[in-house]
């Protein structure tokens, strides 16, 4: 009995830590383990709540291979909080994060409310482009350059990806851009800059989401590496105050550079991290603005699960 009690204490501690810091799939896995329920039993309980989710989907969710995004899936997550005897919103708030795999590219972190509003739309847009649950690519490196315009708006961003295929036949990447409040996706433009070309584009005005298909002109084999670069012209929203990126699982190197217009310089810039989008911001550190280039940057040599970003204050 002491051994069983000790095991239960360890499981409870792991669950508490996962619920506080995420990511979602780790918290879900810890909750299921703490209750000692097989996935078939969890599925049975869900049907009693009028929610139908397959055992395979539950397995994907707790492995981090897929995230619940559709309205029906979000209902299932709320039901899971009751089934697994968790505090209200403890799982659902972690879904403000994004998928840690590369492909499709996910937008920067948003609030839980905006996530719920946009989740069904993004799922539908990805579905129109036949997006697989896993894009087949692992991120080795990701360098983003963000430009802030003279009106203090998010003018454009450029992304340079270094990836490795983990299955055969990968020949595209789905990039997602989520503009700031008030943006106009119809006026945005996507430019394929290197080793790719623009395919189909889908957008939704109400949520500010744009999804672009980038085609590689080659089919990668498992183990192949690939480099490509693209840019999104935005400049359609109001004043921008930060740029953040959310990583669901650990990955390769990430670098973010933000450059400001000479007629719109911030009073202060600061980098920060969060264990999840719903968690308090921590590891704050002032970033000096370079004189001639009017830019600040951060580098994460090895991405950890969570949020990293740069925020700034205007005069």
Rounded average pLDDT? 83
CATH topology label of the largest domain: Immunoglobulin-like
Tell me about the largest β-sheet: 6 strands, mixed
Q: Please report the distance between the alpha carbons of the first and last residues.
A: 63 Å
Detail the poorly predicted runs. Answer: 97-103, 107-113
Number of domains: 2
What is the global morphology?
A: globular
CATH architecture of the largest domain: Sandwich
Q: How much helix is in the residues? A: 25-40%
Strand arrangement across the biggest beta sheet: 4-7-2-1-9-12
What proportion strand? 25-35%
How many H/I helical runs? 6
Organism: Streptomyces griseosporeus
Protein name: XRE family transcriptional regulator
What features would you describe in this structure?
There is one protein chain. The protein is α+β, with helices and mostly antiparallel strands and 315 residues long. It has two domains: 95 residues, no CATH class; 202 residues, Immunoglobulin-like (Sandwich), CATH 2.60.40. The protein is 26% helix and 34% strand. The longest helix is centred in the N-terminal third of the chain and has 20 residues. This is XRE family transcriptional regulator. It comes from Streptomyces griseosporeus.
Short characterization:
With 315 residues, the chain is α+β, with helices and mostly antiparallel strands. It folds into two domains: 2-96, no CATH class; 112-313, Immunoglobulin-like (Sandwich). The protein has helices spanning 2-21, 24-35, 39-48, 55-63, 71-83, 112-128; strands at residues 137-148, 154-165, 170-178, 189-194, 197-204, 209-220, 225-233, 242-247, 253-260, 268-274, 282-286, 295-300, 306-313.
